[in-house]
Amino acid sequence: MKQQYKPLDFDRLAELARTKPQVLERYLRLKVNQIFARARPEERLHLQQLQFRIDSVKRRTKTPLAACIKLSQMMHDELWQLQQALNRSTDPALKAEQNTESTGLPSSIDNRPHRRGKVVPLFRSGKFRA
User: Fold this and answer.
1) What is the pTM of this model?
2) What is the model's pLDDT at position 93?
3) Which of 8, 12, 94, 97 has CB 3.0 to 4.6 Å from 88, enough for a Cys bridge?
4) What is the Cβ-side half-sphere exposure of residue 41, based on CA atoms within 13 angstroms?
5) What would the pLDDT profile of 85-119 be if each residue is shown by its tens digit?
6) Which Pfam families match (predicted)?
7) Distance of CA 26 to CAs 6, 59, 130, Å?
8) To 10 degrees, what angle do helices 21-38 and 41-60 make?
9) 69 Cα distance to chain centroid
10) 3-state DSSP call for residue 62?
């Protein structure tokens, strides 16, 4: 039989963070896994990748506050990118600007022929010397 856990209130979570951080981490991992289990298959991989990024930030930072700041920056970056994508999809001037990003020229001006580059073979002669 699957055990049901009652959601914890903020005060209980704060108490666990102070007194038993390992228990809090297990509880949070359980909740994250429940979210993964309920997610649609096409969303599950993206959620797992996001959780991997979050866990990586938490492991690399020296303090919980540093992790919080870094994760906040990560969220703001994602929201800024989403805002830019939404603006480009609705504003014709920004759509033209999006085409400019690859060459630095608006697509109406960039008439350069697109050609394939020539691959030059590299041969190793003798020993490598640094």
Assistant:
1) 0.59
2) 64
3) 94
4) 0
5) 888 877 666 555 555 555 555 555 555 666 677 77
6) DUF3135
7) 14, 15, 50
8) 160
9) 15
10) coil
Q: 21-53 b/e with 16+ CB inside 10 Å = b?
A: eeebeebeeeeeeeeeeeeeeeeeeeeeeeeee
The CA distance from 62 to 120, in Å, is 47
* CA–CA distances in Å: residue 119 to residues 85, 103, 116, 122: 35, 22, 9, 9
> What is the C-alpha to C-alpha distance for residues 34 and 83, in angstroms, rounded to an integer?
29
Tokens for 44, please give them. 């599950």
